[in-house]
Amino acid sequence: MPSIVPALPDICGNTEIVLAPGGWHALEVESGRCFRWVDNDAAFELPPALNPFAEIELEVCAGPGMGRQHFQLTVRGDAFEQAVAVHDEQRLTLSLPLSRHCKSLFTLHADGGGLPCPNDDRNLNFRVFRLATLPNIVSIQAGVDLVSGWNRFGEDPPARVANSGACIRVHSHRDFPVLCLDLRPAGPANRAGIRIDLLDEDGAPVSTTAIQSRELVGMRLPLRAGMSKMFSLYLEWIGGAVDSPPAVVAFLLRLN
Questions:
Q1: What's the rounded Cα separation, in Å, for the pair 58 and 11?
Q2: What is the average pLDDT score of the chain?
Q3: What's the chain's Rg over C-alpha atoms?
Q4: Residue 85 φ/ψ region, left for φ over 0, alpha for ψ in the -120 to 50 degree band, beta for the rest
Q5: Which residue among 143, 156, 194, 225 is least crowded, i.e. fewest CB within 10 A of its CB?
Q6: Nearest to residue 202, comparing CAs of 167, 234, 230, 163?
Q7: Does the structure show a pLDDT above 90 at 6?
């Protein structure tokens, strides 16, 4: 039986997810990997958030309680249910709905199971190696969703490349919030600067700025508290001729 090591980082790591009582066995380690066995209906919480959804990474595999065979895993929340098939050890990405005013509680449920485990009297239906929010340039508290045109550039720290036309959806928590962006022009250093126009859903300009290196810029938005609206970035090289299409590397987006 693997040794129990409460001092190790938990399966949710340093993210917004909190494991709730019910369904989880103690944290364990085997071959250098941390995990938790699940009896069934293992619960976890996400905090109140400005963003309506959270992107969750779940790494899971069947245990002896399921005969170590593929099984159907159902993720349940308030007025939410999603079933996924689990084959061997599998990494899944889930989009879970969030509430702005209260915590969101979810459970992981496996159909069937309960088979006995040799040398262990616990019910070990499946085990979870990772249950965490995906690393991204926006958090669930950012008030910003990346809609299209944002390509992964790096994971440590998280970064995205945005071309002209990249879209975001903003969820305003106050009147006339400021969209903060940590950006630099894409490509080699000492290239031309880049002009950034923020356009609304109708293509009308909302705010304009320009950068020549990595900078934190702010753009005030014509939104009232409680409004959600789409915007896009229009990019243009300035100060020199550049052959490649204009693009920026983004490290952070959030509302202030």
A1: 10
A2: 90
A3: 22
A4: beta
A5: 156
A6: 230
A7: no
